[in-house]
Amino acid sequence: MCQSDQVNSQIKNELGIYELALENYRSGSWDVARFYFWGLVQAYPERKLYSLYFDRCTELLLTNPGCWSPEFVHTSK
């Protein structure tokens, strides 16, 4: 994103929200994670990582995998 000496309040805020989203994703709170990732997608549409996680949360909510690991296995291209 930038050099550490160039971090401003906007970047700190973005990273704080990302950390919350990722924490909820890893703990299996996909609805909360999805909420945070959607906000990031709206604010930073050029950052594809946020939409990737948003889509994963949506898929996990729909499939409810039960026993879940935060590791992701690609099943298609």
UniProtKB/TrEMBL annotation:
Protein name listed in UniProt: Outer membrane lipoprotein BamD-like domain-containing protein
Top-level taxon of the source organism: Bacteria
